[in-house]
């Protein structure tokens, strides 16, 4: 139940400054495992920031932490510290991360390719029904072919990490 004026700088240090320094360290040492961990962290951070931008989402999430005693920001700080320090290893964070990364690198790429194919088909159907869109789409640069896609498929094609 620290004042917000004290909690906010602590939360910023734990959720932005420390992870940024660790990300830079992983990039300089060229440790692929660490780079994946911090990339996953930043993706999760961005998704949470987008989710909290939706009205009432943060209020609903904070509700259980503010019913009796207002410990929402303390719980947030504890979660960030758990995820950004080595103490997260004791709670199974690396195992969960390995499962998510293996899904995205393995089967997840197949789902992304299928989704892109469905979007292309949908785009063609919409253009056929609304001819004005065809002229607009010609002005927009096209995406590269799927062979240069950064997503790995199950066959292991795609760019390799250095």
Describe this structure in words.
This protein has seven helices and no strands. By secondary structure, the chain is mainly α. It has two domains: 4-105, no CATH class; 107-140. Helix 1 (4-29) runs antiparallel to helix 2 and helix 1 (4-29) packs parallel to helix 4 (72-84). It is extended.
Task: Write a short abstract of this structure.
The chain is extended.
Record keyword descriptors for this entry:
7 helices, 71% helix, mainly alpha, 162 residues
Topology readout:
Blueprint: H1 4-29, H2 32-53, H3 57-66, H4 72-84, H5 93-105, H6 107-129, H7 132-139
Helix pairs in contact: 1-2, 1-4
Order of helices and strands: HHHHHHH
Note the main sheet: none
Helical/strand content category: mainly alpha
Number of domains: 2
User: Tally of extended strands?
Assistant: 0
Mean pLDDT over the full residue set: 75
How much is the radius of gyration in Å? 21 Å
Model regions low in confidence, pLDDT < 50 over at least 5 residues: 147-158
Shape: extended
Q: Considering DSSP H and I runs of 4 or more, what fraction of the residues is helical?
A: over 70%
Measured by DSSP, the beta-strand proportion falls in under 5%
The DSSP helix count reads 7
Cα distance spanning the termini: 45 Å
